[in-house]
Amino acid sequence: MRIALVTLLFAASAFAQVPPAASTAACGPENVSFKVKLDESQHTLAQPDPGKARVYFFQDAGTSHTLGYPTVKLAIDGAWVGANHGNSYFSVSVEPGEHHVCVTLQSSLVAQRMELAHFTAEAEKIYYYRTRLVMSRTVEMLELDPIDSDQAKYLIASFQLSVSNPKK
Questions:
Q1: Residue 156 phi/psi, 5° resolution?
Q2: Is 3 among the domain residues?
Q3: Are 90 and 164 contacting, i.e. CB atoms less than 8 angstroms apart?
Q4: Which range marks the domain in which residue 160 is found?
């Protein structure tokens, strides 16, 4: 009886770790990974394209020592739009309307984490999201949070632009 109970508990915990398909609909295909180059030149805030909104994604590593830091890839509405590495950022143009965001780690060394969010984009508006990987001896947590435009301007001035392309 004890063996059956222990087996049942392990099976239940294994199934609980698999994210439901509906929650991962915002993410892109699992087999896509990105190569990231960082552009160190000076950057300014880009305005939205006419009739569209712009979304900025920042990766805040919390340190300037990012050797071995995992790459974070981001998707909107089921399609990967780019990746950040270390202290970096990129932006994308989106159509007005509701959008679903997915962020996940591109790493085999750190346990897989996923964060999801949604927002309703309005034409000519700018949206800002920051990801952070919080790690300690007992906790590994990926965060995705909207941030204020003043904080975003500070991060644009402080971080490098991420230029990412899918690996072949």
A1: -60, -40
A2: no
A3: yes
A4: 23-166
pLDDT of residue 13: 37
Return the pLDDT at 89.
96
Give residues with Cβ within 8 angstroms of 11, minimum separation 6: none
Give the dihedral of Cα atoms 123, 57, 146, 20; nearest 10 deg: 100
Cα–Cα distances (Å) from 22 to 11, 78, 121, 123, 140, in that order, read 21, 11, 21, 27, 24
For residues 61-69, give the mean pLDDT: 66
Is the pLDDT score of 12 beyond 50? no
Number of Cβ within 10 Å of residue 55's Cβ equals 23
Number of domains in the chain: 1
pLDDT of residue 61: 84
